[in-house]
Amino acid sequence: MPHLLRQNLLLPASPTVTLYDPRTHLRHLPPAYNTAQTPYSRDKDFAPQLRYHLELPRKSKLRPCKIIFVGDCAVGKTAIVNRFCYDKFQSNYKATIGVDFELENFNILGHNFSLEISFYRWDTAGQERFKCIAGAYYRNANVIVATYDMSKRESLNSAKRWLANALNYNTGQQPLIFLVGTKSDLLTKEEFMSMERVAGGAASELQAEYWSVSARSGYKITEFFQRLAALAFQTNVLQQLKALNATATQQPVQTDKSQTFDLRRYFSGASRKQKSGCAC
Ligand SMILES: Nc1nc2c(ncn2[C@@H]2O[C@H](COP(=O)(O)OP(=O)(O)OP(=O)(O)O)[C@@H](O)[C@H]2O)c(=O)[nH]1
Questions:
Q1: Does the structure show a pLDDT above 80 at 7?
Q2: Potential cystine with 119: which of 39, 77, 106, 170 (Cβ 3.0-4.6 Å)?
Q3: What are the recorded Gene Ontology BP terms (predicted)?
Q4: How many angstroms is it from 80 CA to the middle of ligand 1?
Q5: Predicted ipTM > 0.90
Q6: Residue to probe by mutation, ligand 1, list 182, 184, 192, most atoms within 8 Å of CB
Q7: How far apart are CA 38 and CA 32, in angstroms?
């Protein structure tokens, strides 16, 4: 056990403490808002090959996940993020100027995974100077969250346009797409159900996963972010696994072609060699 020499006393080193937070510590894949209607996994758990890959001794560090929120001004983008990150809600509207940015750390299956969340405004008068950074904001998004205000039906059409614009900057990759209806607390039960039917249809067309939320009441905010983080994590790890497999198949290590290539044996063998100091 490592010791520290403090004031001539041998004291045990204090253990690294990771506080357990049920909001951000995930061990299973959280369900979709509507499990019958999602383009993504309907399983109750992560893909088996993901758990298998995470056990491998040689895997690269997980890249942070870039999430962009798009949608009309005042639909509630900032409020959703603030409710999840700080558990706070402000009823007075303060317009976002340029880009706002939040970092949220998850621990998924024992691995650290960060979400880089940003929301951006560039379409209002006097903010033309921010247009030049639009490309940087949109590009390389792992997740796009298109938001609309459930109490303003026209904002759903705007959300579709915002999403199309963001996708134009991400043609080389396939970001996860969510369509999120905000301010569900402002609707009666009938209005809510009617709006969900319309927006659910739009989400299917857009091949997006649909969620209704309320930053004011907190309705489905945590569930939404947990689902988003877990799906982004799974996509990230499976992409890494695919890249490793591609590299491994380009460098055959077996001469007997009748045997299938076992990635786990290959990497565990490599790590044993390293530990024993064998240079061959
Ligand atoms: N009733 C209700 N009001 C909300 C909710 N979410 C946001 N609002 C209000 O809607 C207004 C706009 O919210 P913001 O989160 O600032 O909207 P935004 O999309 O970030 O706006 P921009 O910064 O202009 O892009 C504020 O007055 C919020 O208090 C909600 O869930 N329920």
A1: no
A2: 77
A3: protein transport
A4: 8
A5: yes
A6: 182
A7: 7
